[in-house]
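Try this one yourself first.
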């Protein structure tokens, strides 16, 4: 029993910012518990911050708008309706089912698209980005009888961040698809 009552004193050195501090075993145990508790909370806070910062909403820049409108151009010129619709956020876009049907009709009626555009304005309003572009499209009717069509419109794209990239959440006017 006598051996268990004897207290052993162990020296522990901790180096903090080039300072060496010596603690006895009791102090070290208490310090270790406090440090672990402090680091645990700090680690959780760091994890929350890193998750929030890992996918921040970027600012909508002109390059983002150009990328989106150029994606629409490529989809039209390659006559790829799926690629065209992929640029839009179906969950956030008002009237998306009707828009999707309008796009399907447009691709069914016309082909051999040639697209030109010039971005005239890019802005950010809260969580959404917006872009205005002079948009011109030439299309050949698939029926082979009707004359070619040329449409020119000031196209406005409203864009939202989906967590990975900017997508179009509204497009106006939609009449150029008629």
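Now uncover the answer:
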């Amino acid at each position: 029993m006598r051996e268990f009552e004897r207290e052993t004193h162990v020296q522990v050195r901790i180096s903090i910012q080039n300072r060496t501090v010596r603690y006895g075993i009791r102090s070290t145990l208490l310090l270790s518990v406090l440090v672990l508790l402090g680091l645990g909370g700090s680690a959780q806070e760091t994890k929350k911050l890193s998750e929030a910062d890992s996918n921040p909403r970027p600012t909508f820049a002109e390059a983002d708008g150009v990328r989106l409108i150029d994606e629409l151009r490529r989809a039209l010129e390659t006559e790829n309706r799926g690629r065209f619709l992929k640029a839009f956020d179906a969950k956030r876009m008002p009237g998306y089912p009707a828009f999707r049907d309008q796009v399907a009709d447009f691709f069914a009626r016309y082909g051999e698209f040639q697209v030109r555009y010039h971005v005239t304005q890019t802005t950010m309003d809260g969580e959404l980005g917006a872009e205005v572009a002079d948009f011109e499209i030439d299309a050949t009717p698939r029926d082979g009888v009707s004359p070619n069509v040329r449409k020119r419109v000031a196209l406005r794209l409203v864009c939202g961040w989906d967590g990975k990239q900017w997508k179009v959440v509204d497009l106006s006017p939609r009449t150029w698809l008629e």
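Discussion: The radius of gyration is 31 Å. The chain has two domains: 2-54, 62-177.
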